[in-house]
Design a protein that fits this description.
By secondary structure, this protein is of the alpha/beta class. The protein has one domain: Glycerol-3-phosphate (1)-acyltransferase (3-Layer(aba) Sandwich), CATH 3.40.1130. The protein contains eight helices and seven strands. A seven-stranded mixed β-sheet has the order 1-7-6-2-5-3-4, with helices on both faces. Strand 3, helix 4 and strand 4 form a beta-alpha-beta unit.
């Protein structure tokens, strides 16, 4: 009962915080510079984690500037918030997110690029926009698994989006993310969102969970010069796997 009451309290605060974020994007962002917008997104994300009982733990060095293509394992709907709390990047998200009530406006305001995964040719369009963004000095984030995993291992990496780094000459920065019980350090399945998991159920499980850690571990940037994307994807898969093992 106590956990459920605490979850309800967190939920009310989270909804209020989300509405505040929506208001900021609609009415304040037009007056802000891009750097100021990025800072607001980072601050908003950190506060949301706090409201949900999640403490951010950053290991390694987040990218201070672009251009850089950040790649990371994908576990949950909470991943983007956790990474944004560590450093703002423009994520490549599935096109459907753009039309979600409230969340779509906030995702677009945070600079997301959208891809229609059902259309294989859409990857070419997205790579073009990613390349332009990287050439302009942006920090772009992708989940090369293409979907969420259960956290016990990594799904194969899709190599297509790495072409943006190769074409623009931008480095790639591997990173790993893990959610853990703050008391024991053991991996937590509360934010899990895979296969037939329901988003609302996953949200409720996270809100009811004991205090959590969101551990984001950054590796070292890798030059894109002379790379072949498929071989590089396999190498990066091993690098992210190693970073996952090193989170603590």
């Amino acid at each position: 009962m106590v956990r459920s009451l605490k979850a309800c309290w967190r939920l009310l605060h989270a909804v209020g915080h989300a509405l505040g974020g929506w208001w900021t994007i609609r009415f304040t962002f037009p007056r802000l510079s891009q750097e100021e917008r990025n800072l607001r997104v980072q601050q908003w994300s950190r506060r949301l984690l706090e409201i949900m009982g999640v403490t951010l733990k950053v290991q390694g060095t987040p990218p201070a500037n672009g251009p850089v293509l950040l790649i990371c394992n994908h576990l949950s709907w909470l991943d983007i918030t956790a990474i944004h709390a560590a450093c703002h990047v423009r994520f490549v998200s599935k096109a459907g997110v753009k039309h979600w009530p409230l969340i779509g406006t906030m995702s677009t305001g945070a600079g997301s690029l959208y891809i229609e995964r059902e259309r294989r040719r859409d990857a070419l369009r997205v790579v073009h926009h990613m390349t332009e963004a990287l050439q302009g000095g942006d920090r772009i984030g992708v989940f090369p698994e293409g979907t969420t995993g259960d956290g016990r291992g990594l799904l194969p990496f899709h190599a297509n989006l790495l072409q943006a780094a190769i074409s623009s000459g931008a480095p790639v920065l591997p990173a790993a993310l893990r959610f853990a019980d703050a008391a024991t350090g053991e991996t937590s399945q509360a934010p899990r969102y895979i296969d037939d998991d329901n988003l609302l159920t996953s949200l409720w499980n996270t809100l009811r969970a004991p205090p959590l850690l969101a551990i984001v571990r950054f590796g070292e940037p890798q030059s894109s010069l002379g790379r072949e994307r498929r071989a590089w994807a396999q190498s990066l898969h091993e690098d992210v796997q190693q970073l996952r093992r090193e989170t603590h």
